[in-house]
TrEMBL record:
Listed GO MF terms: transmembrane transporter activity
Entry's transmembrane regions: 20-42
Example of a GO cellular component annotation carried by this entry: plasma membrane
Name of the protein in question: Biopolymer transporter ExbD
Pfam families: ExbD (PF02472)
Length: 135
């Protein structure tokens, strides 16, 4: 009986290195897209600039945004001055030390900034910083 010479069958292999490359590409793609698609909390402001900004070590911080139109926000939620004080008192009563960062537009009035800082201090928070950008 004559047998044809058959080559041994090769087992199928799953190539893992190209699959890892594709997964890394997808991971980088989604991270970069999510950074640009998800907006930051609050309205956009043009920060005042300074020649020597200091890095602030904050523990738990709340961001108060003041726009040139007079709008006041705490962590992206609109408030009036009395409402801001109430919200800050509730935040302070949560038991954590709270630092407040005032993110004020460079064209906002000084009186508006002073009113916000007075409201923060009236809420019992003594650690207040004003955000600025480097010139």
């Amino acid at each position: 009986m004559l047998f044809w010479h058959e080559e041994p069958r090769r087992k199928a292999r799953i190539e893992i290195i190209p699959m890892i490359d594709v997964m890394m590409f997808l991971l980088v793609f989604f991270v970069l897209i999510s950074l640009h698609v998800i907006p930051a909390l609050g309205v956009k402001t043009q920060l005042p600039s300074t020649s020597k900004p200091e890095k602030l070590d904050v523990r738990t911080h709340a961001v108060v945004t003041v726009t040139k139109a007079g709008q006041i926000q705490l962590d992206g939620v609109d408030y009036s001055l009395p409402g801001l004080q109430t919200a800050l008192i509730k935040l302070k009563q949560s038991g954590k030390d709270v630092d407040v960062v005032v993110n004020s537009d460079r064209d906002a009035s000084v009186q508006q900034l002073v009113d916000v800082m007075d409201t923060v201090k009236a809420a019992g928070i003594s650690s207040v910083a004003i955000a600025s950008s480097r010139k």
